[in-house]
Predict the structure.
Amino acid sequence: MPRLLSQLETLGAPVTSPSGVWALRYDAEGRAVIRDDNGATAWAAGAVGALRLEDNGAFAVYDGDQVVWRGDLPKLEYSSLSVTDDGDGIIHDHGLPVHSLLNGPIEPVSLGDKAPVAEIVGNRFLESDDGKRTVNRTPDGDALVHKWKLGMGAYTAIVVQPTHTAALDAPGTWLTWRFLRHDGLGNWELVLVDDEDEVRWVFGRGYVAAFEAEPVAAESTTADPEA
């Protein structure tokens, strides 16, 4: 069974919690509910019909082409829904939990621009000093989402796959960003540094002995594609 209801999807097969005890499914009347194996209901949609997670976080129930109920959710750039082992439904923005169906908004917690990978969990995320770049966990906790703003409301998001994420969770290392030069070009890169602040891994390039790094002040004098 699926573990997520993704953006623009209509609920079909039940979306289960990690333990499989709770699931978002349709009841006998055709209403979307979050219900456990014993039949206890933690949440129910406001009308009978097909539940759909729409663009910009709209959470709606349809009867044919007509909207018959719409949930009051925050507008998101990208969203998905997961079910927790305590029967809640969590709405995610690029994997970052931002809204609980049972308890309302979830406040994100910034870890600053440097943190061990193990600390980037749940609503705790890595954030660059200028706010352009962030890293957070995927809803299943297995991977990382690296997102950066391009300007004029545009952004890019790339997933650091589970095998790489697990390898980066090493003692004495921190995930952060560095301005690095490669093949004569400079750019801000997501990197893993050791306890001596040496770069040991660069996103998209893998493990390295060291890279030429420049101070943050260099950003103002070197072209930055995210500006």
Observations:
- The chain has two domains: 5-105, 109-207.
- The radius of gyration is 20 Å.
- The chain has one helix and 23 strands.
- The chain has a mean pLDDT of 87.
